[in-house]
Each structure stands twice: as C-alpha cells, then as structure tokens.
Amino acid sequence: MKPSLKIDLIQFITLPIKSLKFFGIWVFIPYPITSIGFWIGVLVRFVVGISIFIIPTATQFLYLVTLIMSGNAEISEIAGIINLVLTELLTSVRLLDLRLRRKSLTQLMDQLVNIESHCFVDAHKEILETAMKKSRKLYLWMLFLTIFDITVHVIVVPALQGFQTLPLKMDFIIFDVNDENYFKYICAYQILYKPAMLTTFVALLSLLWSFMMSIIGQLDVLIYNFENMNGLVEAMKAERLCDGNEAFKEIFKRCVLHHHEIIRYLTTFQNAFGGQMLTTLILSATIIGTTALQILSIESPTKNITVIIWVLLFLFITVFILFGDCYYGDIIRVKSSQLATAAFACPWLNKRNQLKKNLLIFIAKCQQPLIVMTPILVPVTIQTFTLVMNWTYKGCAVLNQMKK
Q1: Whole-angstrom Cα distance, residue 129 to residue 126?
Q2: Where would you find the membrane-spanning parts of this chain (predicted)?
Q3: CA distance 267 to 254
Q4: Three-state DSSP class for residue 134
C-alpha cells in the first residue's frame, strides 16, 4: 500500500476563499508589510469595510430608530428592518471574528493539507473527493439562491414599481435619501453593495461547513479502515511479507495516529470558528423570533400573500443556516461514536495480547464522541438546535402576547 495518495484537500475551501478574495476582504494580504501591495490591500479592505459593512448597517439602524421614535410604525415593519440589520450585523461580526482568529485559521488550513498523509488506498481518495464535491455543490447552490434573492428583492420588485422607492430603507441624516438629487445614487449604491454583503455571508457560511465536511470525510476514512480491516491487513502482508499480527499492528497504528490528527484538527477548527458558531446561535435565534413576530403582525394576511411568502422564505433560510451548523456538528458526533463499534467489529480476537489491549484502550477512548463546542461550551448538535427553536418559540409567544 502506498504511504499516501496525493489529494488536494484544499479544494474543500477554494471556492469561498476565491469569493472573499474577489471582493478584497480575505483575511490575509499576500505581500510583505514593507511593500506597496500590502498598503494597497489595507486601503482596499478599509474602503470595502466602510462601504459594505458599516454604512449600510448604520443607516438602516438609524432609519429603524427614526421609525420607532415617530410612533407611527407598524410592528411588522419594525421587525422586518430589525431582521435585515441583524443579518448584516451577523455577516460583519463573522468576518471580523475570522480576521481576529486568522492565526488559528492558518493552522487549520495547514492541518487540512497535512492530514492527507493518512490516506493510503484508492477508497480513501474516493471518500474525500465525494465530500469535496458535496461541499463545492453546496456553495454553488447557496450562491445561486443568493443571486436569485438579490435579483428579485433589489432589482426586479423595485423596477416593477418604477424605482419610486428605495429597495432598502436607509437614513443618512445629513441628507434626504428620497431627494431626487441623491435618490438614484443611493439606489445604485444599494444594488451594488447588497450582492457583496450576501456573497460574503454565503462564503463565510460555506467556509465553516466545508471544514466540517472535511472532518466528516476523515472520520469516514477511519471507519472504512476498521470495517475493511481484513482486506487492508492482507494487502499489508503481501506488501511487507510479514505475518498477520505485524500487518494488523501497522494498520492499527495508522488508524490511531489518524484519529489523533482528527482530534487535533477539530480542536483547531473550534478555535478558528467557535466564535462564529456562537454568534450564529444567538443572532439566528433572535432573527427567527422577530421574523415570526413579523408574520403574526401582518395585517390582512389574505391581501398580503406575496409579503407573507417572502417573509416565510426568509424565515426558512435563517432556520436552515442555524440547522446547518447543528446538523454537521451532529454528524461529526455520530460518526465519531461509530468508531468504537467499527473498531470492535474488526478481527482482533486472535491477535497478540498487547494488540488486544491497545485496541480495547482505543475503543474505550472512542466511546466518548467528538463534540463540536462553542467558546462558552455549548455543543453544536441537533439537540441544541431543538433547544434554541423551543426557546425562540416561547420568546415569540411572549412578544405576541405583549403586542396584543
């Protein structure tokens, strides 16, 4: 058996990274600090950060404050603007968190590349390539849906109304956005900034999920080794001209080292993305609650079917984002717990006592599944998703009663 197969595992994350580089907001600047290229990169990030992540969110928040202070606002309108502000805030916080944790991200990317050394049969390559294709397809589908959403909300719907109103509500304080001298410029600004904002959000989300899918792929490789131990042992015996005990020992040693690398990889992943997952849990729960309140506050629902459909779609997307984090975290938990069963099922009863002892220790260790955790030790699992949705429902019910 080959010691390793050449697999370009960095393909798990190339698409979201290219998207961030396209908008000039990737967390690394590939130039020395003394070069002009570095300072141009700093300037680009400063301009993009102000124009895409600060001005839009701040002006929408100011409009929200003005609307509330007027005393004439409907709850559904207030809730809708809160949702947009929180969504953009979530994107900005996730990007800032990734920037602050770029050292952990560098370590994670290095470990992603180096962990390929534990793949030594063609089946391992097929497992990981399948996982890579799934991660890339997921990103492309999310990007397509984002483009569709932007086209409908920011371009098509306002165009059908003759662009008489802005696609997004903003308040710049120093001038009236509805003034004909500024209106067309603000409208063009919104059409330009919104794709960059949502594409960044999709890229950050896909980056996180791609790393989680790479962990799942590595666990699948390890499970495959134990489920096909007989074939691997026979291949090792033929290659090294050794007995069954020595072949089993070598394969098992590789499995133990691989498991250790997966644990180290998961720990680095938590250091790099734990803050983003925690932010998603908190803000997504808030957005889900305010969106549900927005639906309940729409007057004459039968006359506003289109509005209800779009708000329900927004609610579905928000729930999907929260569910995605918890789903992939739960898959990691389930896959890691299957290792103990797969290891116990492999042919070990007729091996030497030392090999039996080592395998039993490994099985005992695998009985404690790998749990993806946030910085405040909240597990990212389906159980957490259910708990968050339960508390969100209760919070929405309370707010709805207060509204009445």
Answers
A1: 5
A2: 20-40, 47-69, 75-96, 138-160, 201-226, 273-295, 307-328
A3: 20
A4: helix
What's the rounded Cα separation, in Å, for the pair 280 and 274? 10
What residues form DSSP beta bridges with 379? 373
DSSP strands (E only) in 206-292: none
Q: Does residue 61 sit within a domain? A: no
Return the axis-axis angle of helices 180-227 and 122-150, rounded to nearest 10°.
Answer: 160
Within 8 A by CB and 6+ apart from 42, the residues are: 29
Closest CA to 389 of 302, 289, 296: 289
Contact 189, 55 (CB under 8 A): no
Q: By C-alpha distance, which of 383, 371, 339, 403 is closest to 76?
A: 403
The two three-digit tokens of residue 140, written as one number: 């492309």
Domain enclosing residue 281, as ranges:
9-15+101-157+194-403
CA distance 248 to 144: 48
pLDDT tens digits, one per residue of 238-297: 887 778 788 888 888 989 999 999 999 999 999 999 999 999 998 988 888 888 888 877
Identity of the highest mean pLDDT range in 27-36, 71-80, 321-330, 353-362: 321-330
Report the domain count for the chain: 1
pLDDT of residue 51: 92
Query: Does 44 reside within a domain?
Result: no
Residue 165 domain-assigned (yes or no):
no
Cα(238)–Cα(232) distance, integer angstroms: 10
User: What's this model's pTM, rounded to 2 decimal places?
Assistant: 0.90
Half-sphere exposure of 103 (CA within 13 A, CB side): 1
Q: Does some domain include residue 85? A: no
Per-residue pLDDT at 208: 95
| Secondary structure (H, E, C), 64-105 | HHHHHHHCCCCHHHHHHHHHHHHHHHHHHHHHHHHHHCHHHH
Query: Which phi and psi (to 5°) does residue 298 adopt?
Result: -70, 125
